[in-house]
């Protein structure tokens, strides 16, 4: 029988004194609490800036690892499929790795050779088409002053030709030597991601336990799912757009149909903006080379293909993997373009989608469902990160939260209750 000591009669007095001291503290009022919060924010901001500075110092490694992670996320299911077809894991990895390099190298080579030989003619035709469009607008029934548009286009042109747009990502890596080094490093990292990716992630998760491990595991699964689905879906949609626009251009007799189709393919990797810009370039080239009637037909084809993409291809191929509002996509594109040029614009949207999915995994403050005052929930159940997990993944997260050993013990107890006749045998042994 345990005995407890009587309460100290002086304890309430000490608590009252402590509360009085806290009340007279300069940090106890609203201004003091605000100062403490501001100091915390400044400290966190300093840590974030320091991390960004360190990442900028090793930009070569960061970019190479990021590109390798995106490519590995896209082609990793092929490794699993080959293993299920009784290929050895090493042979499946090598075959997938070499196939990825061949496809990627072929696409890059085809884009370069298709555009490089006709780039001068293509750019001059686009400029001539814009000048012709200006003349039509000025002499039309409703004259339009294009001075402000010219000024904006001149700023955009100077931004593009200055190298910040196309060369922003490369300038962070250095000159040609740095680019080659980054490409070689990316290839090496890609191979090891394909070969040992699950093992490396397993090693990382073993440093954490309980709910933290479960959230990290779910964050990794959602990251790989989003990046892989985005790359595969975008490549499919880009190929369809290039085909459905390039073939009609060639059928209409528009010159430079092949490089225009290549521009459409590349532009499709920049959501919303890329397709619009590529279609505008195609229409301008058609205007100066084939006349206004053909240009109007090209515009109609581009609009039709864009509608087909947004209403049919995106829901079927991409699903709702990104779950981002159009405004968020545009803001991400703007920030990515300012930071890293064209490559930043390409990577901004999938990275933003990954960040949003990870935030959903780690926070539970969002009110799910309809509210009597706020109304309908803006997020549908299919847009939530939790809805992307399979049944097997949810069971895995549950075991991580409560401990696999505890879950297994519960299962063993259930089995013992179902088979009581085997208990004496185990006791005898």
Brief overview:
The protein is an all-alpha fold and 429 residues long.
Report what the structure shows:
By secondary structure, this protein is mainly α. Helix content is 79%, strand content 0%. It has helices at 11-24, 30-57, 59-84, 89-116, 119-139, 147-161, 164-173, 176-205, 210-251, 257-267, 273-290, 292-318, 326-362, 391-402, 404-418, 423-428. Helix 5 crosses helix 11 (273-290) and helix 14 (391-402) crosses helix 15 (404-418). The two termini are 39 Å apart.
Write a concise keyword list for the protein shown above:
429 residues; 16 helices; disordered C terminus; globular
Residues in β-strands, percent: under 5%
Q: Helical stretch count?
A: 16
Principal-axes geometry comes out as globular
H/E topology pattern = HHHHHHHHHHHHHHHH
| Helix content estimate | over 70%
In round numbers, the mean pLDDT is: 76
Number of separate strands:
0
Radius of gyration: 30 Å
Span between N and C termini? 39 Å
Low-confidence stretches: 159-175, 417-429
Structural class: mainly alpha
Largest sheet: none
Record the SSE blueprint.
Layout: H1 11-24, H2 30-57, H3 59-84, H4 89-116, H5 119-139, H6 147-161, H7 164-173, H8 176-205, H9 210-251, H10 257-267, H11 273-290, H12 292-318, H13 326-362, H14 391-402, H15 404-418, H16 423-428
